[in-house]
Amino acid sequence: MLRRLLWIMCAASSLALAWLAGRQSALTADDSALLLAWSGAAQASMPTTPLPQALLAQVEADDLLLSSVYERALPSVVAIHAESAGQESSKGAGFLFDTQGHVITSAHLVQDAQTLRVLLADGAFTSAALIAFDPYSDLALLRLSTPPPAPPLLLGDSAALRVGQQAIVIGHPFGLHGSLSVGIISGLGRSLRTAEWLGLGLPAQLLSALGYENPSVIQLSAPVNPGSSGSPLLNARGEVVGVISAIRTENGTFQGVGFAVPSSSVARIAPQLLRHRRALYPWLGISITPEDGGYGVAGLADELGLPVRAGVLVRGIAQGSPAEAAGLRGGTRWREVRGQRVCAGGDLLLSVDGQPIRDMASLSAYLLAHTQVGQTVRLGLLREGQPLEISLTLTERPAQPTPIRDCQG
Question: How many domains does the chain have?
């Protein structure tokens, strides 16, 4: 806001002087002299209003902060050229994850690449190998063929982010390496269907119903353009709090909304990619009616007579799943709500390990952040209006969805 005010004042002064200069060309010499004399006298008589030093100091402090974050982080940010035979190379970014030369970037950038070339901050090129990628988080792990040229960036706490905080991105938009863009965190807890984008052959509605979407995604206003994929999203401390993944656009360019995978996902998934060459997702094994458009519990409470306005209404149970083994129950009858068929009568999940569940996204986010394969969790639920607690042991989520025993109505 301060910077915008300074710009407006300078622009107004420039426009006024330009107008006077243009008018002088149409005036006589005497008129011009009179006008200039009047202008000088008027300016001399006008009181000057300097900007308060406190405001200028704040602007300069903001500038210094951004410059400091940029200068410290840039050596650890790399540009990635993903090349495939017969295709134009895809360009993006990544950042050094550890001292062994591992680089974090976006899966959609490198998953089909035959050759990976990496441009370092000092202008040198090196090659890289793809260790593994995870389509559900849109994260990939590379290894440089040469020793890392700089220390790794530190991971920050994405769970501590708040809407309105500064969002700082260093990336490679349009092939312009080392570009800085700044905005704010404009939303939290978004879901992205990254598995759908990466060509797994899974329809969007099925991903939503199974909870296979990427939860806890960060929304930001900092400009994100082609070539920004894999760029680190930094906080004011210079810590990585996200990895740029996507934009919401209608014309292929940035229109004010970008998305980043949270650093909590990086901290969990990157070691698994290194050790297991895949990400291990804990699996519950339920399906729901997709909650978009007001079909979550909050939007269905009145129509279905539900006693609560938050939770997950179970529609179907996956065969051979932990949910089936624990005796969870799916829906028993179909109802039409606002022109859409909804399955009612199933268990209504309210909490996991004592933590309230708002919707399917919050359930998925909790399982990803706080549980692991083989762990036993406690589910609090309502069954036919009666409270119940069930213990359930999570297994690894299958790579492809298993058959669902859908609504029995």
Answer: 3
